[in-house]
Amino acid sequence: MELSAFTYSLNSGVARITLNQSELGNPFNQVFCEEFKRLSVECSENPEVRSVLISAAGKNFSVGGDLKTFLKSREQLPRAFMSMTSDLHMGVSRFSRMDAPVVIAVHHLVVGGAVALVAAADFAIASESAQFYAAFTAIGLCGDTGISYFLPRRVGSRRATEFLMLNQKWAARTALENGLINEVVEEDALPDRALALATQLAQGPTRVLGKIKRLQLSSYQQALETQLEFEARAMTECAYTEDAWNAMNALAGKQPVRFENK
To answer: What 3 state SS string does the chain have?
Structure first.
């Protein structure tokens, strides 16, 4: 796969996606959005992908939207937003609904849409240097990349409203306390810790993890009885798999459990 805004590799079930426009601050520009969608299709449809690890090259994880691109033409700006978000949002949806869990590892500046990616990821690890900056209202925008959907689910509606409307910046420890991220580690430990978590997830029951992801996505919209039925159906589907049967037998026999997505 030829990419310019990212690098991509797949090893031992872990798909590694790295933001790779470090000289520009890894901005959300047209090529970023197009390639993000392509990567979401690859990770969603490749059965060898069992977890995804998103990180970034360079000083910052991402400075958010590409202001230089935005300012090229006032007349074309609305069309540019519609085009970019059509790709970006499709990518967010596919990463969120596919089986493989997503781990994101962030450092230094995490701005605008990049904060939304952190909130959307299944697991988020940050270095001590990480700074999460809302940024949207500072340039007269309301936010995209799923920020209005995922951020309230992670931090609660009150904190999400404060963060976005007051254009707040959270240090890594504040983001941890507020529930945006799972863990804070030292700068040098970030790559190894994130890879270890992605590898652990890749060894799990990927199809089951996908069901957990999708059940959680639907839980806010469904009545209790509907969600209970979704759970019952998902559990029943799991019961048909060899992974579930083999895992139960392995645990009963005090043997190691190995998942093969069957």
So the answer is: CCCCCEEEEEECCEEEEEECCHHHCCCECHHHHHHHHHHHHHHHHCCCCCEEEEEECCCCCECCECHHHHCCCCCCHHHHHHHHHHHHHHHHHHHHHCCCCEEEEECCEEECHHHHHHHHCCEEEEECCCEEECCHHHHCCCCCCCHHHHHHHHHCHHHHHHHHHCCCEEEHHHHHHHCCCCEEECHHHHHHHHHHHHHHHHCCCHHHHHHHHHHHHHCCCCCHHHHHHHHHHHHHHHHCCHHHHHHHHHHHCCCCCCCCCC
